[in-house]
Structure formats: C-alpha cells, structure tokens
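Journal club prep — side note

Before the paper discussion, L.F. wants everyone to see what a predicted structure for a comparable chain looks like in token form. Sequence:
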Amino acid sequence: MFAPAFWYKKTPSLTAYALWPVAALYAAGATLHGKLRAKHPYFAGVPVISVGNLVVGGAGKTPVVQWLAAHYASQGHQVAILSRGYGGQATQPMRVSERFHTAQEVGDEPLALARHFVGQSVTIWVGRNRAAVARRAEEAGATLLILDDGFQRRDVARTCDILVINGQTESPWGNGLTLPAGPLREPLKHRSRAHFAIVLNEPESGTLPYYGLPAYRLQTQLTEASLAPLHGKPLVAFAGLAHPEKFMKSLAANGLKLAAAIAFPDHHAYTPKNLTYLKQRAAEAKGILVTTTKDAAKLPQGFAYVVEQTLTGPQQTDILTDIDQRLTAV
C-alpha cells in the first residue's frame, strides 16, 4: 500500500475532513484496545526495549532495532528480537531460521533480520501473541528482549519505550489525524507513553525541533562496503517500502548512477511477472538490479545486489546511556 498524499499535508484536506468521523471511531477503538492490552501485561523476567512509531509505514524502526541488538549482543546479552511477523503465515511463537523459513512463513522483516544476525548472539522470534513469544524467547535463554514495532503492543510491559520519527518529512505526524483520514495508528497525544524519540535524518544544522517528548538525532546511511562495487555502474533500483523514495534518494546522494527507480507497495510479495519485468529493465539499461535487505528476503537468492544500511551520529552514546540507566533502574 502506498500512503495517500493527503495524509502528509500539514493542513487536513477536504478528503481528510470527509473521513474524520471514521477516523474518530478508529481513534476511540485504538485507545480502548490499547487500554485493554495494558490492563494485564506480561512482565518479562529480563529487560525489554520497545522500538515503534505512531504512523503507518516506514519511520526507520529496523535500523534502530539492528543497532540496539548488535550493541547489547556485544555487551554479552543473548538478545531476542520479537516481531508480529507481518505478512507471514506463522501464528504460534516461532524462532526464525534464515535457512529453513521463507518470507511467506515468517514475514519479510523478520527473515531479513535473521539473515543479518547469522552467527551472532541475536535470535528473531515471531508470533501473533507477543506475550507468548516473549515467554518462549526467555525460555530459550534470552537475557534482553527487543519489541520490533512494539509501541502499540502493550500486552508486554517494557523497561524502555522508544518512538522512531522520520525527520525527513515536513510533518512527521502527517496531518495529525488517525486512520483512515491520516497516517496515525493512534491519537498523537499517546506519544507521551514513550520515554524518548529517535529522530532519523533530521537536517543536522540547527536545533532539533520539539516533537512533544525528549528526542535524539541520528542519521541513516548506506554502508560504504556495500556501495563500493556499484560506483560508476548503471543501477536499476527497486524497493517495496512505505517510503521507497528514501532508498532511491540515498543511492543518488552517494554518487551512484540510477538508470531506473522502481517502487512497489510496502511488504510487496514479488511475483514471477515482477521478476521478469525487473530483469527486462536491467537488460535494457545494461545495469545492475539493486534493492534493500527487506526486499531481498522475498527474492530468489542472488537475484539483486543488496545494499546494507547503518546508523551514525554523535548522540548514539547519549541514547545508550539513557537506555542503560532505565535498564539498571529496575
């Protein structure tokens, strides 16, 4: 699904106003649903970090989850990343295997994470019941849990609650309305549940705008190691993301030559027809197919060159200090 353009206009459009009654009902339902889930949450016996957002689509949660998991694994933790497994068929708690599972079974993002952390002290778990998944991960020896896309999943108590915000958009909350009139999953005032926000790719000059809660600034960037083989070659870039234009712009910003940029809907399941089309475009451009790790999880191995992403920024240490203080306070 592509986000409607009217969602991200600072002033609600006529379409948004027409949908406002439905949005009001959605907001009330989301609020009630959250309160019911939070009434009797599961309290894990290990620290829990939640990484989520308020808007539908990609704010940049995955790079943050990867960064935190890698850091705490390097500190001696057995880290378990817990995901709903969006787009996958798995309903019961399941540890994701990069060798034996497919994106259709466990979801594209969990499979991409499992491939990323091969050989490290990080496991990936999926399941519809996040509390049951947390129990299974603990039983398997996890000493720290990370809830991927966990802000609305209030059935698991968390030690540290982080909101991720896309700082590249003019209005990160869109028009400020809930679905379907706007991009918000729940009312904006609920952001106060988070301990702090991580704002990704906000321009580094000037003071960080106030987002309604304490915030830190980080930047995402494509790793030089994955970019090096691509310089000077025509690229046919494609991605099925909430904001595929961010991926395309980042390639161009690194001086790479884009012969074509092809966008698919978020969590797109690639068909044989799609693959044939992409091969044709690459042949016409005499170029290399390039995509993201998330998309690669749904493609035949070796179909396209995969570009890796990482986080940078001087406030990384401040963020980890903030989290550590919360983890040691319990």
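L.F.'s comment for the group: The chain has a mean pLDDT of 94. Keep this in mind when we get to the figures.
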